[in-house]
Amino acid sequence: MRRLWTAAAALALAGAGLAGTAGVAGAATGGATSAAACSTAWGSGLKSATDSTAKPLQNIKTSQSTCYDRMVFDISGATGKVGYHVGYVDKFHQDGSGDLIPVSGGAILQVFVNAPSYDPATGKPVYKGKGGQALPGVNLTGYKTFKDAKFGASFEGQTQVGLGVRAKLPFRVQQSGDQLIVDVAHTW
Predict the structure, then answer these.
(1) β pairing state of 146-155 and 107-113
(2) What are the pLDDT digits (tens) for 135-155?
(3) In which element (H, E) is residue 84 found?
(4) Residues 74, 161: contact at Cβ < 8 Å?
(5) Minimal CB count within 10 Å: which of 54, 111, 114, 163?
(6) Residue 43 near residue 87 (C-beta atoms within 8 A)
(7) Considering only CA atoms, which of 157, 125, 147 is closest in space to residue 50?
(8) Which among 115, 45, 55, 58 is positioned nearest to 86, based on CA atoms?
(9) Rounded CA gap, 154 and 158, in Å?
């Protein structure tokens, strides 16, 4: 029994030493999160919610994080849940016409957001995306995962975007207030 306790104590001390070393390594790198600390449990399967809004899409923005690249759909004034349909596709076809839109990258993530890019009351454009063109104001230079972003269409109350990514990587979709957020992990 004494041997068992001695072995347990030795393991505990060794673990404490490793934890201390990890803390020093983190401090040496400026406290940056390692890839091992990034969650990739999101999976790469289709994600959707059927909710909808009558509020139009105002803007699409992107940003980078230590663990993922982020695309944010701003639907100012939306209350409640915003519907979406997000999944990988082999080719990106414009909603409504079926026209093929080339999207660069190792994989294409198709994003449908249940918000039109036009004002439903007047039909006037709110978000200035044009079919088959790069997203207005979005510059993906230097992104680790995002490689290309094309506007598909705004058809029957939903807006479509093709997001070219480095590879078929895990992603998540979440809502924060009146923003729908798509994060794509840097690694598996």
Answers:
(1) unpaired
(2) 999 999 999 999 999 999 999
(3) strand 84-89
(4) no
(5) 54
(6) no
(7) 157
(8) 45
(9) 5
How distant, in Å, are the alpha carbons of 18, 39, 135, 162 from that of 87?
A: 40, 19, 19, 10
Kindly give the residue spans of alpha helices, DSSP state H, lying in 29-134: none
Helices marked H in the chain — which ranges?
2-28
DSSP helix/strand/coil, 69: strand
pLDDT tens digits, 57-79: 999 999 999 999 999 999 998 88
Q: How far is CA 115 from CA 99, 160, 168, in A?
A: 21, 10, 26
pLDDT at 39: 79
35: left (phi over 0), alpha (psi -120 to 50) or beta: alpha
Residue 146 carries which side chain, given as an amino acid letter?
F
pTM of the model as a whole = 0.80
Q: Is the dihedral of CA 4, 5, 10, 11 positive or negative?
A: positive
> pLDDT digits over 116-126, tens only?
999 999 999 99
The Cα 179–Cα 175 span in angstroms is 6
Task: Give the CA count within 13 Å in the CB-facing half-sphere of 176.
Answer: 8
